[in-house]
């Protein structure tokens, strides 16, 4: 159906069809039926548009994260280049920073986060830029000791398969940092 027919209810006419009609005051049955046809046509088009919009909404909502935070929760923020001053964020820098405490909930999708003043950005974040902070898994007492030893038999052809007897020991930890990965690991 053409857009003209949807709006007006009939196919467009040529210039020769546009002859002035005589003026009379009685109601025509054909005009009444035509008006009723147009009303039903508009209702049908409106119903189809609503169904189409609902289908689009359903597809869009399938990808949304429905998550809310409360005041006092800890979150990781997503680092975006456009949010920070130029030159502050580098290409290979971590994609997330945190954890930071939520100070205030402004709505269902906006939060005020407790950021250090040296960040130089607004402390208000959209929910799409926040990820719930999960505590890292417990670190084994000796990180160089595998939790389940791998047993392999040494072969003369491969000297690398010989078990190592040397152990390294950490003398002092100078600094630590939490970095989030794409797979939501830390």
Written account of the structure:
- The structure is a single chain.
- The protein folds into 2 domains: 3-14 and 27-61; 66-159 and 173-186, Roll (SH3 type barrels).
- The protein is built from 2 helices and 5 strands.
- It has helices at 3-8, 29-61, and strands spanning 74-78, 96-105, 110-113, 124-126, 130-132.
- Strands 4-3-2-1-5 form a 5-stranded antiparallel β-sheet, with no helix packed on it.
- A hairpin with a 4-residue loop joins strand 2 and strand 3 (110-113).
- The protein is rod-shaped.
- The relative contact order is 0.10.
- Mean pLDDT is 78; it is low at 146-152.
What is the fold's blueprint, element by element?
Layout: H1 3-8, H2 29-61, E1 74-78, E2 96-105, E3 110-113, E4 124-126, E5 130-132
Antiparallel strand pairs: 1-2, 1-5, 2-3, 3-4
Question: What are the salient characteristics of this protein?
Answer:
SH3 type barrels, five-stranded antiparallel sheet, 186 residues, rod-shaped, alpha+beta, 13% strand, SH3_Tf2-1
């Amino acid at each position: 159906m053409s857009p003209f027919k949807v709006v007006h209810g009939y196919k467009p006419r040529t210039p020769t069809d546009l002859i002035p009609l005589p003026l009379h005051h009685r109601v025509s049955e054909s005009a009444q039926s035509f008006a009723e046809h147009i009303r039903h046509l508009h209702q049908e088009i409106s119903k189809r548009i609503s169904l189409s919009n609902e289908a689009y909404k359903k597809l869009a909502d399938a990808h949304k994260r429905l998550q809310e935070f409360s005041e006092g929760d800890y979150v990781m923020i997503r680092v975006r280049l456009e949010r920070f001053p130029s030159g502050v964020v580098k290409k290979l820098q971590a994609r997330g920073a945190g954890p930071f405490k939520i100070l205030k909930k402004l709505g269902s999708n906006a939060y005020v986060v407790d950021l250090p003043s040296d960040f130089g950005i607004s402390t208000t974040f959209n929910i799409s830029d926040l990820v719930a902070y999960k505590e890292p898994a417990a670190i084994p007492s000796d990180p160089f000791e595998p939790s389940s030893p791998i047993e392999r038999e040494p072969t003369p052809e491969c000297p690398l398969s010989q078990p190592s007897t040397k152990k390294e020991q950490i003398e002092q930890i100078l600094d630590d940092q939490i970095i989030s990965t794409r797979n939501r690991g830390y």
